[in-house]
Amino acid sequence: MIFWFSGTGNSKYAAQRMAEALNEPLLCMNDRIKAHDTATVETGERLVIVTPTYAWRIPRLVRDWLLQTELRGARQAWFVMTCGSEIGSADRYNRELCRVKGLSCMGTAQIVMPENYIAMFGVPQADEARRIVAKAEPDIDRAIAALREGLPFPPTRNNLYDRLMSGPVNPIFYACFVKDRAFTAGPACTGCGLCAKRCPTNNISLQNGRPVWGGSCTHCMACICYCPAEAIEYGRKSRGKPRYHFEAL
């Protein structure tokens, strides 16, 4: 079975490619997390977990959901992590998660996809995003080939920088940067509610027809990048930047 979580569609796309190639069922963790649904999942022996990279590890809300959910039948787990540049030493923490869950960790694959973290980094225009996706296709194919043969993924890079970013920097990043106070909706907002619908943490509510952020944001960027009116800004950091989600390519 292939589990996926995605903010703006990169990981969803990778998961769908793998599911189609391997004839594996898909499970959307966004829906389960949003519904606070931690009911047992019958997975079969092989589990593939496809997620974006948040602060050089898998997202905390994905980790927590996996820890709280019984994965009945699962024996081996492969991780596929999409990112804008790198995943650090995320594999170390994936292996620890597997240890706690009683799973054999078969490694972590890094897939570089278009950057979506508009709260901090530049986001590519559509043409550049398409080029990045095209460059990622062979990496997705290599992950599929390993999964088809039941082979572990090759070891990921694990230098001092990687260990620093996935280690001490990760909690500092969450504490200092993963906040929603800078999100605002401008006059172009139509009150359509798509931001609230997309939010995996139910952090957005509509009040008087306007979105209000509630303080439990995970910085998936779904609200700002899917807004059809491009009415949402993240302070000054998002101004003038293109919005990215995979379906727009």
Structure description:
By secondary structure, this protein is an alpha/beta fold. The chain folds into two domains: 2-174, Rossmann fold, CATH 3.40.50; 179-248, Alpha-Beta Plaits, CATH 3.30.70.20. The chain has eight helices and eleven strands. The protein has helices at residues 10-22, 29-34, 60-68, 90-101, 126-149, 160-177, 194-198, 222-226; strands spanning 2-4, 26-28, 41-42, 46-52, 71-72, 76-83, 104-112, 183-185, 204-207, 210-213, 232-234. A hairpin with a 2-residue loop joins strand 9 and strand 10.
Provide a brief overview of the structure.
The protein is an alpha/beta fold and 249 residues long.
CATH fold label of the largest domain? Rossmann fold
Radius of gyration from CA coordinates: 18 Å
* Unreliable parts: none
CATH class of the largest domain: Alpha Beta
Q: Which structural class do the helices and strands define?
A: alpha/beta
Primary descriptors:
globular; alpha/beta; 2 domains; 8 helices; Alpha-Beta Plaits; two-stranded parallel ribbon; 249 residues; Rossmann fold
